């Protein structure tokens, strides 16, 4: 089975901003003729940057789930809710579909992103040839989810807005919302810093 040539062997380089395939003139100041962005064959320090961002995202994700996100005050009764307790409350109060949406967007999606990026980083570091096409598709899926990551924050706000409050009720945001927003932003940066060409790279690379 013949091996297809690499872009570097053909003297080609892709722009990381607009995707235009350009001639690799190997000049330090080379720029994309379409968007003017600097051209480089690899994302610098992709492996170490992605790991650092992924670990940082996980660290802020813990308080995002442990700390309350909202405080409800109703007739002197104060009730603090985390994401999970909010999901349980929605389910108990007869909104199972909304509870599933909140659980999926706020718990399942972030955890899957952690797992997917960790798998890509470990397998790429080992220069594994296992399921390379599937791992490339997995990365594209993580990128696609990244475009909708702020939906997680929106769903948390929706959780606050749709709870049935009494006339004298009051809702206050708590620090858990801030940590959750940081989780979304940092995981997006982590996926952007990962160089998908590492999936196909069986050679030495700089980190």
SSE topology:
Blueprint lengths: L11 E3 L6 E3 L22 H21 L3 E5 L2 E5 L1 H10 L3 H30 L6 H16 L2 H13 L6 E5 L1 H19 L14
Helix pairs in contact: 1-3, 1-6, 2-3, 3-4, 3-5, 3-6, 4-6, 5-6
Structure, explained:
The protein has helices at residues 46-66, 83-92, 96-125, 132-147, 150-162, 175-193, and strands at 12-14, 21-23, 70-74, 77-81, 169-173. Strand 1 (12-14) and strand 2 (21-23) form a beta hairpin. The chain has two domains: 1-41; 45-199. Helix 1 packs antiparallel against helix 3 and helix 5 runs antiparallel to helix 6. The mean pLDDT is 77. It is mainly α. The strands form two sheets. It has a three-stranded antiparallel β-sheet with strand order 4-3-5. A two-stranded antiparallel ribbon has the order 1-2. The chain crosses the membrane at residues 51-69, 97-123, 144-168, 174-194. Keywords: Cell inner membrane, Cell membrane, Membrane, Transmembrane, Transmembrane helix.
């Amino acid at each position: 089975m013949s091996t297809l040539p690499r872009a570097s062997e053909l003297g080609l380089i892709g722009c990381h901003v607009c995707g235009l395939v350009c001639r690799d003139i190997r000049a330090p100041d080379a720029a994309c003729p379409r968007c003017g962005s600097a051209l480089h064959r690899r994302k610098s320090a992709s492996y170490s940057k992605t790991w650092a961002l992924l670990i940082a995202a996980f660290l802020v994700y813990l308080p995002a789930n442990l700390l309350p996100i909202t405080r409800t005050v109703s007739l002197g009764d104060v009730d603090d809710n985390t994401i999970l307790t909010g999901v349980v409350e929605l389910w108990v109060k007869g909104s199972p579909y909304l509870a599933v949406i909140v659980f999926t967007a706020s718990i399942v999606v972030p955890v899957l992103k952690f797992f997917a990026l960790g798998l890509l980083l470990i397998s790429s570091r080992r220069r594994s040839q296992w399921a390379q096409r599937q791992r490339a598709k997995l990365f594209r899926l993580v990128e696609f989810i990244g475009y909708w990551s702020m939906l997680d924050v929106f769903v948390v706000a929706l959780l606050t807005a749709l709870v049935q409050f009494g006339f004298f009720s009051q809702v206050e945001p708590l620090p858990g919302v801030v940590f959750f927003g940081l989780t979304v932003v940092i995981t997006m940066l982590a996926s952007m810093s990962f160089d998908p060409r590492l999936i196909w790279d069986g050679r030495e690379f700089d980190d």
